[in-house]
Structure formats: structure tokens, C-alpha cells
UniProtKB/TrEMBL annotation:
Highest classification ranks of the organism: Bacteria, Bacillati, Cyanobacteriota, Cyanophyceae, Oscillatoriophycideae
PANTHER family (alphabetical): STRESS RESPONSE PROTEIN NHAX, UNIVERSAL STRESS PROTEIN UP12
Pfam families referenced in this protein's UniProt entry, alphabetically: Usp
UspA domain segment(s): 1-135
Family stated for the protein in its record: Belongs to the universal stress protein A family.
Organism in which the protein naturally occurs: Euhalothece natronophila Z-M001
Protein name as catalogued: Universal stress protein
Coiled coil: none
Length: 135
């Protein structure tokens, strides 16, 4: 059913909490797992420590999360891209014909003022495949 699962990751607690669900999905459906981390352009206005703004921090995060899956006998592919996360996530999902995107959600998309800034909300609206959002 889900041959390829795309799991976009960042430094958030929500990403870490979604690892268990992703592990279960990959094992249950014998899926190929692809981890994606996006280097974001730096913003002068309000820096966010969860945003990945350097290649080194992206590489470090990908290796950390990859090792979590390797411990569970899952061999994920890793991808690094640069740009605006929601658009990159959807582009990668389309390029690789992903069957499912699984991502954590901080809940900011539930607040009207923050809805435009929510990566998960944008992905839901732009995705070429189903999106499972883990609250």
C-alpha cells in the first residue's frame, strides 16, 4: 500500500515523537523510508532554533535520525535540500512518487494568525500524495 514513505525531519519534539509511528508504518507495509531535511534560507527578522540553516546541522540531524531507524533494522535513504520546507517536501514527494508523507505538527496551523506559517498545513494543501500528520 505504501511502497515509499517520505519523512521530513527537523529538530522539533514533534519530529522525534513521530519516529515510532513511522517505524511501525515502514515495518507493517515493508516500505522504503526516505528522510528529508531542508536547509532554510536565514531570516533576519525572527531566528528560529528549530529551523535548519546550515548544511552541517542538516547532516548531523540526518545521521542522528537515520541511526534511530537503523537500530530498528530499517535502512532509510537520506536527502538534503535547500529552500522553503513545504514546497521542497511536496516537490520531493512528487519526484520520488511517494505514497505517503508522514510529519510531525506543532499545532500552529490550528491558530488562524499562524496558519500561513504552518509547514504541515501547506504540505497538506500542496501534496501530490496523502499526508499523515502526527500531533
Amino acid at each position: 500500500m505504501f511502497k515509499t514513505i517520505l519523512f521530513p525531519i527537523d529538530r522539533s519534539r514533534e519530529t522525534q515523537e513521530a519516529v515510532g509511528t513511522v517505524t511501525n508504518l515502514v515495518k507493517n507495509f515493508n516500505s522504503q523510508l526516505v528522510l528529508l531535511s531542508v536547509v532554510e534560507p536565514q531570516s533576519e527578522e525572527k531566528p528560529d532554533p528549530r529551523k535548519m540553516t546550515s548544511q552541517e546541522s542538516v547532516n548531523e540531524l540526518l545521521e542522528q535520525v537515520k541511526s534511530l531507524f537503523t537500530e530498528q533494522s530499517i535502512s532509510p535513504e537520506t536527502l538534503e535540500r535547500e529552500g522553503r520546507p513545504a514546497f521542497i517536501i511536496c516537490d520531493v514527494a512528487d519526484e520520488m512518487n511517494a505514497d505517503l508523507i508522514v510529519m510531525g505538527c506543532r499545532g500552529v496551523g490550528l491558530i488562524e494568525e499562524e496558519a500561513d506559517e504552518s509547514v504541515s498545513n501547506r504540505v497538506i494543501n500542496l501534496s501530490p500524495c496523502p499526508v499523515l500528520v502526527i500531533p
